[in-house]
Design goal:
- There is one protein chain.
- By secondary structure, the chain is an alpha/beta fold.
- It has a single domain, classed as Rossmann fold (3-Layer(aba) Sandwich).
- Helix content is about 35%, strand content about 30%.
- The two termini are about 20 Å apart.
């Protein structure tokens, strides 16, 4: 089966389908989709517009539910959970990195990183200490009180990466993480992703960037809602 590996699957979909009904017609965004990603893998997902990348990312990130089939995240079947339970799973198990950063303009670096911890009920003292630690990890230890408007694009993406790590998620999902950055800032972000991989984090990155794909351990090519091919790039 395409996508099956021998280790522990942190992400496992079985015969996954996502169907949209438009004007009496059924449009399959994902069709009989089987994907297994082992814990600690750095995977890149590529494909043309309309291939199903965004739909897949939304389902893997528990932002949407499949029409049929099974999705297990860290062994937990999340396929049929309601919105409240999906939100709880997102907060506990998933870190997001978006192309547009999605930082809160009124909050400084520390406060933006703290947001996921607030929703998990962590104390103010512990969340502030954790946020400062993560800011230092991504090279922003001297920018803790700066707001997004006072940071470069690369620095804002670093904040987004630190925020994604706040609750020690099972997987980190990134959507075109270097898409809005110049080449120098993009290279810095790629370096941070490499570091996360070395630390054993599970990374799933949707990208058109061949350089990201070259750094991943597996490249998954989508076409018309299916896996067209997978390439294991190596360790």
């Amino acid at each position: 089966m395409v996508g099956v590996t021998s280790g522990m699957a942190i992400v496992a979909t079985e015969n996954l389908n996502k169907v949209y009904r438009v004007g009496g017609y059924e449009l399959f965004a994902l069709r009989d989709f089987n994907l297994h990603i082992d814990e600690g893998l750095y995977a890149a997902i590529m494909g043309p517009s309309g291939s199903g990348k965004s739909t897949l990312l939304n389902i893997l990130g528990c932002l949407d539910r499949p029409s049929s089939g099974t999705y297990r995240l860290a062994g937990e079947d999340v396929s049929g959970l309601d919105d409240d339970l999906l939100s709880e799973v997102r907060g506990r198990r998933i870190g997001f990195i978006f192309q547009s950063y999605n930082l809160i303009a009124q909050l400084n670096v520390i406060e933006n990183i703290e947001v996921p911890m607030f929703y998990q009920g962590l104390s103010e003292h512990k969340s502030a200490a954790r946020a400062a630690e993560l800011a230092g990890l991504v090279g922003l230890g001297d920018r803790l009180r700066h707001r997004p408007s006072e940071l470069s694009g690369g620095q804002q993406q670093r904040v987004a990466i630190a925020r994604a790590l706040a609750n020690d998620p099972a997987i980190i999902l990134a959507d075109e993480p270097t898409g809005n950055l110049d080449s120098a800032s993009g290279a810095e972000i790629l370096g941070i992703l490499d570091d996360l991989r070395e630390q054993g984090k599970t990374l799933i990155v949707v990208t058109h960037d061949a350089e990201i794909a070259a750094r991943a351990q597996r490249v998954i090519h989508l076409l018309d809602g299916r896996i067209e091919k997978e390439v294991d790039v190596g360790a």
